[in-house]
Amino acid sequence: MRHARAAQLRTTTAVVTVLVLAATATACGGSSSSSSAGGKGSTIGIDLPTKTSDRWIVDGNAMVKGFTAKGYKTDLRFGNNDVDTQVSQIHKMIAQGDKVLIIASIDGEALGEVLLEARDAGVKVIAYDRLILASNDVSYYASFDNFKVGQLQAEYIVDKLGLKNGNRGPFNIELFAGSPDDNNTQYFYNGSLSILQKYIDSHELVVGSGQKRLTQVNTLRWDGAIAEARTKDILSTSYGSGRIDAILSPYDGISRGVITALKHAGYGTAAKPLPVITGQDAEAASVKLILSGEQSETVYKDTRMLARVAVQMGDAILTGGKVKINDTKQYDNGNKIVPAYLLPPVSVDKTNYKQKLIDTGYLTEADLR
Ligand code: GAL
């Protein structure tokens, strides 16, 4: 449906596109044909999913700082995890004349139509951390190696349970995945299963609830409260006197929800220790839980570096420079393969948090008090 509507709109707006592009070229007076109209001084629209998670605030601030230092204005907005809000914000950015849009989508498939407007206005779009799907109008993708993120989480579990060192368990594990409308979710989950599946097949890892399919384990909008409720449910229906030994969690906010439910059910004592619990984003609230021994691990993605990548891309687009990419294969958005720059994720626990998070200035000791 969505795709058909998008295709129809694309056709009806084709003529307008040609006219707008022609007008733009004239107005530019023969400036570099490879750069979008604008250049230094123009405004970059930055639209991020929500303020309820620290990371997006950090991402937003880092991009504002980076673009400002390069002589641009910025228009930073947060979509309140609501698709309509995000679409209307993007709509406004285009109408206002923002020249490049940097978007971390709430629903990866929901932006096709509004991005047709961007194209018609000659505005280039960069997908930020989350790929925008089902659209031709995404020029670049800035993210991390998302498959690797899932692998790091799973490897941590395998390592901590001693599975590689001959401890055959069996261990009980429960699996959590991210939001079904976020393209990253399947990359994280597939990355994790690429490590865990063989132990599940050999019954060294047992999913007590039996819930393994992505449709059973996903967490809409990455909402910790949903993960908390699902944990409660699993504990009461599948774990009478049994114990969970490990939780695969793809994101710190989900981990915190799971931990709340587990503690409520009596976990967190010497007799009933909390399971190995992974996470992602190195949010201060979760690093505190790592230090107190409640969460085990998180995958740190230096969002300052991601912001730097996005700023390089935006600046190059507007000045006719060369956009740096390092992947042209992995990220097919359904319409095209989007050229990407992917950064390396890093597994962090209490043994290396100082070196990775504090010494690099990502967090301060004060953030963790
Ligand atoms: C994903 C992102 C993760 C995490 C999650 C929830 O798209 O890659 O790092 O932030 O959203 O916000």
From TrEMBL:
**UniProt GO cellular component terms:** outer membrane-bounded periplasmic space
Q: Check the record and name the NCBIfam families matching this protein.
A: ChvE (NF040907)
Signal peptide positions on this chain: 1-27
Q: Which CDD domains match?
A: PBP1_ChvE (cd19994)
Which Pfam families has this protein been placed in?
Peripla_BP_4 (PF13407)
The record's listing under InterPro entries reads: Bact_Solute-Bind_Prot2, ChvE-like, Peripla_BP_I, SBP_2_dom
- The residues covered by the Periplasmic binding protein domain are 46-321
Report the protein name in the record: Sugar ABC transporter substrate-binding protein
Compartments annotated for it: namely: Cell envelope
Q: Which UniProt keywords apply?
A: Signal
Q: Indicate the transmembrane segments per the record.
A: none
One GO MF term attached to the UniProt entry: carbohydrate binding
Q: Does the keyword Methyltransferase apply?
A: no
Query: Where the protein is mainly located, per its record?
Result: other
Query: Key word Heme present in the record?
Result: no
